[in-house]
């Protein structure tokens, strides 16, 4: 039996794509292996969002190519990098045997068979097609047994001037509510207690399919699934976090009090150049409204520093705002000049300036994160256990920590705990990113 190994890079949306491809391979009779040294075929699902991600993808492809000196016969590359550089990859990387576009992932088993039949340098792309997965498609979940991602839409219509995703993934396409609920029910029956909704922009969900925003309605339906414990949604744009959405989260016993709202910047001129559909005043009002609506809530954001033409004064305005807003979580990126985007044609900020601004934002946020975490000392939370570290602390998350991107709750327990178990924990200490607690 042919063994296929996968390396999935980039975001959780890309991970879902990898899970779909693994499902297609299993359906075709192949075996999935998590060990590259055992694989007959290695598939690298790449990210091509910013320069660092592109470099990681290239490095990983070259690393995986080394296994062709051992058992591996074929190296296949798919994902965002191939969609953007379909001609260059096959021409400049002779180690690669086949590439697929992001809309052709279900053709992977067919490509593998073609390679075994002697076909060489296969390139499968159809830029006129679109792809959205459905619950009927087989899927091999790669996350731990207690949480899973559900991609509720594909593509993006926002056209932020710095972002290449619409060029790669195409227009925004929502999945029907019924199909998402069906998938969530199936996951719940298999024991997945935390469902994480993801898309390029979850708050635009339904606008193409139903003619209006329907994330709140989807959440209400998911709330009814008995075996689900936590429901989380990511990537919500500030202009679309409205009263309906806040109220649904507030009234729910399952939707976690966690808002992931990428603002990118706060200066109105920069926001306009970014083609963002919000303003400083609008963002400020939203943060105040969310904080007023909940006794305890986490707000996570992302900011982009060094955007073309960003002045020192505009950057300092962002820093001042971050100190005012006191975001609980923050991800920062240095602007990456992406060909084909409008921002790439603007006067660029020097790399050293970008680096300096990036480091300053991180330093500001470290202090804020520690201060926000200190507020949680003495409080009690339900925590899901994920692993055990070398110091005999269990590692877990409360509803206020999203998988993969946030800090952890380190739990001291005399009892043996297993991954996926939910326990009650009292917080004893707090650091910049992590909390320490004990079993109650």
Automatic annotation (TrEMBL):
<dbReference type="Pfam" id="PF04055">
    <property type="entry name" value="Radical_SAM"/>
</dbReference>
<feature type="domain" description="TRAM">
    <location>
        <begin position="374"/>
        <end position="440"/>
    </location>
</feature>
<dbReference type="InterPro" id="IPR005840">
    <property type="entry name" value="Ribosomal_uS12_MeSTrfase_RimO"/>
</dbReference>
<keyword id="KW-0949">S-adenosyl-L-methionine</keyword>
<dbReference type="GO" id="GO:0046872">
    <property type="term" value="F:metal ion binding"/>
</dbReference>
<keyword id="KW-0004">4Fe-4S</keyword>
<feature type="binding site">
    <location>
        <position position="11"/>
    </location>
    <ligand>
        <name>[4Fe-4S] cluster 1</name>
    </ligand>
</feature>
<keyword id="KW-0808">Transferase</keyword>
<comment type="function">
    <text>Catalyzes the methylthiolation of an aspartic acid residue of ribosomal protein uS12.</text>
</comment>
<feature type="binding site">
    <location>
        <position position="163"/>
    </location>
    <ligand>
        <name>[4Fe-4S] cluster 2</name>
    </ligand>
</feature>
<dbReference type="InterPro" id="IPR005839">
    <property type="entry name" value="Methylthiotransferase"/>
</dbReference>
<dbReference type="Pfam" id="PF00919">
    <property type="entry name" value="UPF0004"/>
</dbReference>
<comment type="similarity">
    <text>Belongs to the methylthiotransferase family. RimO subfamily.</text>
</comment>
<dbReference type="GO" id="GO:0103039">
    <property type="term" value="F:protein methylthiotransferase activity"/>
</dbReference>
<keyword id="KW-0479">Metal-binding</keyword>
<dbReference type="InterPro" id="IPR038135">
    <property type="entry name" value="Methylthiotransferase_N_sf"/>
</dbReference>
<dbReference type="InterPro" id="IPR013848">
    <property type="entry name" value="Methylthiotransferase_N"/>
</dbReference>
<feature type="binding site">
    <location>
        <position position="156"/>
    </location>
    <ligand>
        <name>[4Fe-4S] cluster 2</name>
    </ligand>
</feature>
<dbReference type="GO" id="GO:0035599">
    <property type="term" value="F:aspartic acid methylthiotransferase activity"/>
</dbReference>
<dbReference type="InterPro" id="IPR058240">
    <property type="entry name" value="rSAM_sf"/>
</dbReference>
<dbReference type="InterPro" id="IPR007197">
    <property type="entry name" value="rSAM"/>
</dbReference>
<feature type="binding site">
    <location>
        <position position="160"/>
    </location>
    <ligand>
        <name>[4Fe-4S] cluster 2</name>
    </ligand>
</feature>
<feature type="domain" description="Radical SAM core">
    <location>
        <begin position="142"/>
        <end position="371"/>
    </location>
</feature>
<keyword id="KW-0411">Iron-sulfur</keyword>
<dbReference type="InterPro" id="IPR023404">
    <property type="entry name" value="rSAM_horseshoe"/>
</dbReference>
<comment type="function">
    <text>Catalyzes the methylthiolation of N6-(dimethylallyl)adenosine (i(6)A), leading to the formation of 2-methylthio-N6-(dimethylallyl)adenosine (ms(2)i(6)A) at position 37 in tRNAs that read codons beginning with uridine.</text>
</comment>
<keyword id="KW-0408">Iron</keyword>
<dbReference type="InterPro" id="IPR002792">
    <property type="entry name" value="TRAM_dom"/>
</dbReference>
<feature type="binding site">
    <location>
        <position position="47"/>
    </location>
    <ligand>
        <name>[4Fe-4S] cluster 1</name>
    </ligand>
</feature>
<feature type="binding site">
    <location>
        <position position="80"/>
    </location>
    <ligand>
        <name>[4Fe-4S] cluster 1</name>
    </ligand>
</feature>
<protein>
    <recommendedName>
        <fullName>Ribosomal protein uS12 methylthiotransferase RimO</fullName>
        <ecNumber>2.8.4.4</ecNumber>
    </recommendedName>
</protein>
<dbReference type="GO" id="GO:0051539">
    <property type="term" value="F:4 iron, 4 sulfur cluster binding"/>
</dbReference>
<dbReference type="Pfam" id="PF18693">
    <property type="entry name" value="TRAM_2"/>
</dbReference>
<dbReference type="GO" id="GO:0035597">
    <property type="term" value="F:tRNA-2-methylthio-N(6)-dimethylallyladenosine(37) synthase activity"/>
</dbReference>
<dbReference type="InterPro" id="IPR012340">
    <property type="entry name" value="NA-bd_OB-fold"/>
</dbReference>
<dbReference type="InterPro" id="IPR006638">
    <property type="entry name" value="Elp3/MiaA/NifB-like_rSAM"/>
</dbReference>
<dbReference type="GO" id="GO:0005829">
    <property type="term" value="C:cytosol"/>
</dbReference>
<feature type="domain" description="MTTase N-terminal">
    <location>
        <begin position="2"/>
        <end position="117"/>
    </location>
</feature>
<keyword id="KW-0963">Cytoplasm</keyword>
<dbReference type="InterPro" id="IPR020612">
    <property type="entry name" value="Methylthiotransferase_CS"/>
</dbReference>
């Amino acid at each position: 039996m042919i063994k296929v190994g996968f390396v999935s890079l980039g975001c959780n949306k890309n991970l879902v794509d990898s899970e779909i491809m693994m499902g297609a391979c299993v359906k075709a009779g192949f075996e999935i292996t998590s060990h590259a040294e055992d694989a007959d075929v290695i598939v690298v699902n790449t990210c091509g969002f910013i320069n660092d991600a592109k470099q990681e993808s290239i490095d990983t492809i070259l690393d995986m190519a080394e296994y062709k000196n051992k058992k591996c016969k074929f190296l296949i590359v798919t994902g965002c990098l191939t969609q953007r550089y379909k001609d260059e990859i096959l021409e400049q990387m002779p180690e690669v045997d086949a590439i697929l576009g992001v809309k052709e992932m279900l053709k992977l088993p067919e490509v593998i068979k073609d390679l075994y039949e002697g076909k060489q340098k296969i390139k499968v792309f159809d830029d006129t097609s679109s792809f959205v997965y459905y619950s009927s498609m087989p899927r091999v979940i790669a996350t731990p047994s207690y949480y899973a991602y559900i991609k509720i839409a594909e593509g993006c219509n926002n056209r932020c001037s710095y972002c290449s995703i619409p060029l790669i993934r195409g227009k925004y396409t929502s999945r029907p509510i019924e199909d998402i609920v069906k998938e969530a029910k199936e996951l719940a029956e298999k024991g997945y207690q935390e469902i994480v909704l993801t898309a390029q922009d979850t708050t635009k969900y339904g606008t193409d399919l139903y003619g209006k925003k329907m994330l709140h309605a989807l959440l209400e339906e998911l709330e009814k699934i008995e075996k689900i414990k936590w429901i989380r949604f990511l990537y919500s744009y500030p202009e679309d976090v409205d009263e309906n959405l806040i109220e649904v989260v507030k009234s729910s016993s399952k939707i976690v009090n966690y808002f992931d709202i990428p603002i990118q910047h706060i200066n109105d001129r920069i926001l306009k150049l970014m083609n963002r559909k919000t303003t400083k005043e609008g963002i400020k009002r939203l943060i105040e409204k969310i904080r007023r609506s909940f006794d305890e809530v986490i707000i996570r954001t992302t900011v982009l520093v060094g955007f073309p033409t960003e002045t020192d004064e505009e950057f300092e305005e962002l820093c001042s705002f971050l100190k005012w807003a006191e975001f609980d979580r923050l991800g920062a990126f240095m602007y990456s000049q992406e060909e084909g985007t409008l921002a790439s044609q603007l006067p660029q900020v020097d790399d050293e300036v970008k680096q300096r601004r990036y480091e300053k934002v991180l330093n500001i946020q470290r202090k804020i994160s520690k201060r926000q975490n200190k507020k949680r000392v003495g409080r009690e939370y339900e925590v899901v256990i994920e692993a055990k570290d070398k110091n005999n602390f269990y590692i877990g998350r409360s509803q206020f920590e999203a998988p993969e991107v946030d800090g952890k709750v380190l739990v001291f327990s005399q009892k043996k705990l297993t991954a996926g178990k939910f326990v009650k924990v009292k917080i004893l200490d707090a650091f910049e990113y992590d909390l320490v607690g004990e079993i109650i």
